[in-house]
Design goal:
The chain is an alpha+beta fold and 114 residues long. It has one domain. The chain has three helices and seven strands; from the N terminus they run βαβββαββαβ. It starts with a strand and ends with a strand.
């Protein structure tokens, strides 16, 4: 079963940049204020983004107009796409997550099992 995280916006962010492995991504998400939840239903539309950590790549899928506008403004025009989602190297995702959260956007985050 995939792991999903919901963010507590009251948690302040501090710590080193993310590296390329699932354990460190899970640790980073917890430091960013996400708490581990397990669910059977699809809660993706409750958020602005759907984020999936595939291990070597993280996908960031905008679900709302506000999320797409944020991506248009802050992500490079030539950003790599994976279907309708942006394909992001894990080492860059921490800064991107902080950016969209600072702008009041939310995400459902799924870490796929190794």
């Amino acid at each position: 079963m995939p792991l999903s995280f919901c963010r507590d916006p009251s948690v302040k962010v501090n710590g080193p940049p993310m590296e390329n492995n699932v354990e460190k991504v899970v640790d980073l998400l917890r430091r960013l204020g996400y708490s581990l939840i397990r669910h059977k239903g699809d809660r993706r539309m409750d958020n602005d983004f759907h984020v999936t950590n595939h291990g070597s790549i993280i996908t960031l899928q905008p679900l709302t107009e506000a999320a797409q506008e944020w991506c248009d403004e802050y992500l490079p025009e030539d950003a790599q796409m994976f279907g309708s989602a942006y394909a992001i190297e894990p080492r860059y995702f921490g800064d991107i997550a902080i950016g969209y959260q600072d702008d009041g956007l939310t995400a459902n985050v799924v870490v796929t099992p190794a």
